[in-house]
Design goal:
Elements: E1 2-3, E2 8-15, H1 20-35, E3 40-50, E4 56-64, H2 67-89, E5 93-100, E6 105-106, H3 142-154, H4 159-169, H5 173-179, H6 189-205, H7 208-211, H8 221-245, E7 268-272, E8 280-284, H9 292-297, H10 300-312, H11 316-344, H12 352-382, H13 387-413, H14 417-447
Antiparallel strand pairs: 1-6, 2-4, 2-5, 3-4, 7-8
Helix pairs in contact: 6-12, 11-12, 11-14, 12-13, 13-14
Length: 450
């Protein structure tokens, strides 16, 4: 016997405890009204417990005759009920709705029913209701394999585009919808974060000459040596200039230390180049105050070793270690900033993980905007377009980031402009401080890993 029920329109409501009695009386009245409406087969009301905020939940399901009755109901009575509920109860309720359908299946004895090859559950349709795997055993074709791999990329209604578009142009929308329970239409937050971060680092640090070197004409030894000398000279000069401004290096190229000259207090590191009178690295008048475990690790011998290793390969290994540590530093930054949000919104009744979700989405947006800026810069250099256009787009994207953060805070936490502005300033300062700390940590770890 074939079994099939009509579509079900369901609204799920969580009510503040003090308004529960009024809502239940109103819902019973509307259910009686709906039972007398053409096209509605059945109306059911039931309790679903409490949400994470302690609000009791109620569900009302309307079983319709067919899709035509469903369309009339959604355009008519359902819209009226939602508007009346929100107008009457306002912020005392949260209103969610969805449409349920039952797959068509043929009732068979349990022994004759097909089972899922993945989890063993009985199948009652094309897909397993327990694990979601498709209920067939034949090998897939090459075209199906390609479609599974790239389907989300080229289908305009896929979860990929339904996630990236609001992430880019609707600040705070993903976080707000996720916290309201509308999640199935979007990519999971941490998966999106990992995908966009991977895309950013591939775009930012991908060098086609290193990966596809066979496709390029080889450089002569003289060209390579000349290029390396120029790069080394530029890097060394920039490092000397920056460190000299900080008072860390005394005596640049062309200057020498007199035997009787007094040295400055603190840490004095010199890396003598090819033109210097000496070779190697020196650490003079080294002293550091701090915990004992730090003093045991920051020894003059270890600093000399790090200096010599960096000089040996002109800092290549150091930069590679730094590239590897930056993603970890950004992940460490996420829980730190979530603590800041938790402190800024102590009365929001939100869990720590909800604040963490806000920054997961914001960092995903940052990776996306930085990737677009890099691509715009490269396309502007490769195509015969005015340079001002690319610069204008990059600058506009840079100004969009702080605006995005402010609007996202307003949408997710729903506070006034003045209060949000004050918290925005505190959050921005805290973010810059946290970013600086984590990046310094990444630099330190990269240096001690060479």
């Amino acid at each position: 016997m074939t079994v099939r029920s009509g579509p079900i329109y369901e609204n799920r409501v969580f009510v503040e405890p003090e308004s529960l009695g009024d809502y239940e009386a109103w819902a019973d009245k509307q259910a009686a009204r709906a039972r007398n409406t053409a096209g509605i087969v059945e109306v059911a009301l039931f309790d679903i417990g409490q949400d994470d905020q302690g609000r009791p939940g109620r569900v009302c399901q309307f079983t319709l005759e067919d899709d035509e009755a469903l369309e009339k109901f959604v355009d008519g009575l359902a819209t009226e009920l939602e508007a009346e509920a929100l107008d009457r109860f306002g912020a005392a309720i949260s209103w969610q709705e969805r449409i349920l359908r039952e797959d068509e299946f043929r009732e068979l004895p349990a022994g004759e029913m097909p089972v899922c090859l993945n989890c063993g559950a009985h199948l009652r349709g094309q897909y397993c209701g327990n694990c979601g795997q498709r209920g067939r055993s034949r090998l897939i074709s090459l075209w199906e394999l390609i479609r599974d791999a790239f389907g989300d990329l080229f289908e305009l209604d896929s979860r990929l585009w339904q996630t990236l578009v609001p992430l880019m142009i609707r600040p705070g929308r993903l976080t707000h919808d996720y916290l309201q329970g509308r999640r199935a239409r979007y990519m999971p937050p941490f998966r999106m974060y990992l995908v966009l971060s991977l895309l950013f680092f591939v775009v930012a640090f991908f060098d086609p000459r290193e990966t596809f070197g066979i496709l390029y004409e080889p450089q002569t030894l003289e060209d390579i040596e000349e290029e390396e000398r120029r790069e080394a000279a530029d890097v060394a000069e920039e490092v000397r200039r920056d460190l000299a401004e900080e008072g860390i290096i005394i005596g640049g190229p062309g200057e020498s230390d007199e035997p009787g000259e007094e040295t400055t207090d603190g840490l004095n590191i010199r890396i003598n180049g090819e033109d210097g009178a000496e070779s190697g690295c020196k650490v003079d008048d080294f002293s550091i105050s701090g915990p004992e475990w730090l003093q045991r690790r920051l020894t003059p011998e270890r600093l000399v070793h790090i200096c010599e290793q960096i000089k040996k390969d002109q800092g290549r290994q150091f930069l590679q270690n730094l590239y590897d540590n930056v993603p970890i530093a950004l992940i460490v930054l996420l829980p730190i900033m979530a603590f800041v949000l938790k402190a800024l919104y102590p009365l929001s009744r939100r869990y720590y993980v909800e604040h963490l979700l806000f920054f997961v989405h914001f960092h995903a947006f940052m990776f996306l905007i930085l990737t677009l800026q890099i691509l715009i810069s490269r396309l502007n250099a490769a195509l015969p377009t005015p340079e001002a256009i690319g610069v204008l787009l990059i600058v506009a994207a840079s100004f969009y980031v702080p605006v995005y953060l402010f609007v996202a805070m307003r949408r997710v936490y729903a506070q006034g402009r003045l209060l949000t502005t004050a918290k925005y300033v505190v959050l921005t300062v805290s973010y810059l401080a946290g970013f600086t700390m984590t990046m310094l940590g990444a630099v330190t770890m990269a240096a001690f890993s060479v």
